[in-house]
Amino acid sequence: MKLRLIVLSTIFITSCQPPKQTMDQEKQTPTSPRKEYTNALINEASPYLLQHAHNPVDWLPWGQEAFEKAKKENKLVLVSIGYSSCHWCHVMEHESFEDTAVAKLMNDNFICIKVDREERPDVDEIYMTAVQIMTQQGGWPLNCFTLPDGRPIYGGTYFRKNQWVDVLEQLANMYRQTPDKVIEYAESLTSAIKQHTLINPKANNTNVDTNWLKDQITTIEKSFDKKNGGHNGAPKFPMPAEWDFLLEYACSPGKEELKAHVLFTLKKMAMGGIYDHVGGGFARYSTDENWKVPHFEKMLYDNGQLLSVYSKAYRVSADPLFKTTVSGIIDWLKREMLHQNGGFYAALDADSEGEEGKFYVWTREELENSLSESKLELATSYFNFNQHGYWEHGNYIPLLTDQSLEILHKEPSSISDLKSKLLKLRANRVRPGLDDKQICSWNAYTVEGLLEAYISFGNPEFLDMAENTLRFLLDQCFNEKDKRLYHYYKEGGRKDADFLEDYAALIQALIKTYEVTGSQQYISTAKKLLEIVEEKFEKMNGFYPDRPSGLDATLITPTLSKSDNVTPSPNALLAQAKYKLGIIYYKTDWVDEAVKMANQLSSDIESYPTGYVNWLRIINWEHHKFFEIAVIGIPEPKIIENIARYPIFNKLLLHGNAEVPMLTDKREEAIYVCEKRVCKKPVTSFSEAKKLMLGN
User: How do 60-61 and 110-116 pair as beta strands?
Assistant: First the structure.
């Protein structure tokens, strides 16, 4: 089927990829006046859609109305998908969507729909799958052409203006002249998209055991970049889910080489230009193999997850760089991403003043005019404003070397003062655009990250921030009466309910908050949300769809997310939550179901284990070790903190006032260390509990 579709796609136009366009080229791109036109997007809440509200293109938001219009006028539909901080989305907008001649061609021949992928990940999933089937690659902006009923016929990512005009003209002519051929192709492509959501369970899963798990880890290790950390090649994404799982797995005895590579990767990322050494926080990815030149947008989902990974890595290694990195992320979150309601914004743009990275890079002239001679010398040595940090067009990207770490160790106060000085200088620049959506799942990842930081460093502010954000999610995103969880909140309202990713991430955040605080309300709410998922989401081949059926009749097929990407698989996160809640509430069917879901994917995992690390985590729990630790009335100071901080991450900590079977069936005041729901002899001190976890 896939081969046939690839051949069919050559009937149309060859796919385009974003060129390595320079900043100078982008500055020369002509633009039309922004306010001369206003389209239907002006009434939308999404910052990305509002960015396009004054294009001369007659954009419509996603919905039944747009497709009814297409059917009435018998026009093809353009579904153009992006997000507010996407650099190449801005480039294509300036080159094509703001051009009145191009807009006329689009308006005359197509019904044009704009979609914010962060607002509608299910729509993005369908048309990304279509483009990947046709071109074997994807990205944003994502431009997919469909029949009036939404079935795709052709797509690609970024197109230069002349290429875009050719695409528009050829497709319009083809649909007028040979509509039957276009419809036939759409039928084949739609069938392939539907096949993509199917699960292909392995006939015999008995081989899913510790040896099988080792084989998957070995496959992952084969592509490790021993020089730069991460995996071989470029671009390089942080992929926090992968390093988080591998760190957990590597903390078992006999895995020192794997542990060393994980810590080496995290160190290389934290020293590279992908991390903002002046203001804190990670960019979305590095364009090169050295982590030097980032794609400068900053996403909450990356930084929330990386908070967790770096906090755990500090517990393993006590590396002061990891502590500095965590502090920097949190400082950035507080300063630039936190709303007074307790929720965090979604993203910061890569561009300012029409240039990618302009807000973050430095010129020698600016530094020489702003810093004393001694501070300039220190900045040059520490931030590598020299050949190591040089980028292009006279710009330098701050990054660290081993020499930088030595300077930091010797002169921490001087480096702190220098950062403050540069941060004040930078504050006078035109800021990148802010996407002020407060997305439920991304905020939930950040709650977990803040909790892990609290566990590692004991700063009560981190716990307060986590609980405040969790209260925001429960107050503003969760409608308990209607059993609805909204995808995001934005000043003035909330929008788009019942995405599996939000339920799964929020349940996980609630479980972790319970582990830290011992408060009944968090664990009972987690259980309640899981029961709502069971009630509303009808399974497809043993897995949960991204949304309940019937919410959007315009979708050509339900979507189902199995694998991890830059964010975790919703199904995997939910399965992990089921595993934990099944233990807490003695619901063995939940535990068994989580394991069954992971086992069903063994064939998929074998083909690409890096994309299924959150499923490998469940398999590791079930076939290797998973500790359930219940603490009942032990007076030893900081007993909970010590157990939580101890760097064995495949554990579940129960304590406090929660009325759950795992606690209420234990009468003796003691620490109960259990495995596979079987408890060892109770002990009364942290040192004894640690020995049990170590198998002594």
Answer: parallel
User: How far apart are alpha carbons 330 and 334 in whole angstroms?
Assistant: 6
Neighbours of 522 (CB within 10 A): 22
SS (H, E, C) 38-49: CCHHHHCCCHHH
Provide CB contacts within 8 A for 262, sequence distance 6+: 243, 246, 247, 250, 313
Q: Is the peptide bond before 141 cis (omega within 30 degrees of 0)?
A: yes
Residues 6+ apart with CB under 8 A from 694: none
- Output Rg (C-alpha) for the chain, integer angstroms: 26
Question: What's the whole-model pTM score?
Answer: 0.93
Long-range contacts of 192-196 (CB under 8 A, 24+ apart): 192/1, 192/2, 192/5, 192/133, 193/126, 193/129, 193/130, 193/133, 193/152, 193/556, 193/557, 194/557, 195/1, 196/129, 196/133
Asked if residue 60 lies in contact with residue 107, where contact means CB atoms within 8 angstroms, the answer is no
Q: Closest Cα partner for 350 from 361, 342, 358, 338?
A: 358
Chain centroid to CA 295: 15
Is 343:489 a contact under the CB 8 Å cutoff?
yes
| CB 235, CB 295: distance < 8 Å | yes
Q: pLDDT digits over 122-147, tens only?
A: 999 999 999 999 998 899 999 999 99
Length in residues, the chain: 696
Q: How confident is the model at residue 37 (pLDDT cuts 50, 70, 90)?
A: very high
φ/ψ of 579, rounded to 5, equals -60, -50
Q: What is the per-residue burial (b if ≥16 Cβ within 10 Å, else e) of 446-458?
A: bbbbbbbbbbbbe
- Rounded Cα distance between 124 and 542, Å, is 23
